[in-house]
Amino acid sequence: MEFRFCGFALIAVLSLLPLCFANAQVSGQVLDASRQPVFGAHVLASHSDHITRTDETGFFRFNQLSQKDTLIVSHVAFFTDTLLVRNSQDEVTFVLKEKVVSFENIVVTPGYDPSFQMIQAALETKVLNSSQELLKLVPGLFIGQHAGGGKAEQLFLRGFDLDHGTDIAIHVDGMPVNMVSHAHGQGYADLHFLIPETVQHLHFEKGPYDPDQGNFNVAGNVSFQTKTRMENQVQAAWGQFGTRRLFGSINLLNNKRHQSYIAAEAHFTEGPFDSPQGLRKYNLLLKEQWRLRSNQWLGFKMMGFSNSWTASGQIPDRLVRNGRLSRFGAVDDTEGGTTSRMSLSTDFKSALSKGSFYSQLDWIRYDFELYSNFTFFLNDPINGDQIRQAESRTIWQGLTRYESDFNLLGNLIIWNAGLGNRSDRVAESELTQTRNRTENLERRQFGSIEEDNMHGLAGIEAQFKTWHLMAGIRYDFLKFSYQDQLSGTISTATQGFLSPKISISRSLSDDLQIRLKLARGFHSNDARVVTQSDSLKTLPAAYGTDLEFNWQPVENVYFNLVGYHLFLHQELVYVGDEGIVEPSGRSIRKGLELGVKVEPYAGLFLHADINFAHSRFSDLEGGSNHVPLAPRWSGTFALDYHHRSGFQFGVTYSGMSDRPAIEDNSITALGYGITSAKCRYETKGIGVSIEIQNLFNVDWNEAQFATNSRLRDEPNAVEELHYTPGSPFFLKSALSFQF
Question: Is 566 within 8 Å of 162 (Cβ atoms)?
Answer without folding.
Answer: no
